[in-house]
Amino acid sequence: MNSSSSVSLFWVVAALFVLVAMAFVLFPLLSRKKSTRVNADRRAVNIAVCRDQLQEMEADRANGLLSNEQFEIAKLELENRLAEDALGQENAPQVAHAGSRTLGYVIAVVLPVAAFGLYYFSGSPALLNPAAVAPPTVEAMPSGHDIEKMVEQAEAKVKANPADGESWAMLGRSYAAMQRWPEAWKAYQFAADRLPEDASLLSGQAEALAIIKGGALQGEPMKLVEKALMIDANDFKALELAAASAFQEKNYAQAAVFLKRLGEQLPPSDPYSQKVKTALARAEQLAQGGGLDNLSQPAATPPPSTAALIRGSIDVAAALKPRIGAQDTIFLFARAAEGGPPVAVVRGPATRFPMDFELSDSAAMTPGDLLSGHKQVTLVARISKSGNAQPQPGDIEGSVAAVKVGAQGVHLVIDKAI
Q1: CATH code for 304-417?
Q2: In terms of pTM, does the model score above 0.85?
């Protein structure tokens, strides 16, 4: 059924309902006749009925069902009826009341107008046209305000019942969505303690811990990933992290195993599926000893050795160099031009400046989001006092935007205190 026929059917059905309602109201008014004998008791009854009708009309006028003019006309008819009752003789015959007929005619006009008018102003006429209702799209993601409300709700549930693992899990996922990684790591830890058989909590905890450590998956993050895969060999996040760790360790054969299991869970139409296939092809090529230089590329594109790399140097503004300590750590992040979590991360000791750097797919945070999959990125360098990848008071950082993947000789200056 098309939209025009749907609209027509609605109005036909609505009109039928109004006609049925009018029949119930108008039939008694237009066909009612008085008894030929009217005594004092009957007049008292008529007065009471007229009083009730007057109250109903006043209510209809207050609700907008009767205009002032219609109300005055109906009121005059009621007054005429009362006057006739008061002056008439007890044996005077009476026929059908003209006042009832007039009121019936008034209602016959007012009722349908009021019904359709009330729907037009208070209902949802636009919903009658399916084309006017936009379907939800993938882009309709929760806003920052929505996520903050989710966090508040999760925090309230945790406070109300600290033993509820599901509430802790929801809180951890909400913190992760806001990239509040230290809080996410703690919430996931509490959730995993209460729900030890939920692999997703362990992999979520591993992701948060790895990001806190600047993207390094070795050590405690991988122990959590291994526990998650023992519980569920197909846990999505655990497979992502395991493949990323294998890339970091240059164990490309193992990375290919994890990527293949990851890809088997994705429908071919999923955009992420193509990224996983690209990473799998690269891992298999590297596992065979081909190296980046031997990957086949279209002739119009730069050689892979430069297309998948960003090289340059990092320096520190002279005014900030005295703030660098011997134990400080430097992090270099590459983020997608539109923002979001890091695409690639490297870390090292903040020993001497200027220092050279190189970013490649081996520094990827997830195998499905490689550096080579982006045209441009934003580079952020941060010197951390605590060794924590999250910005802390006392850290210093600098950034450069719109860096083309494959660029050489990028110069990044750390020039801002946090």
Answers
A1: 2.60.40.2990
A2: no
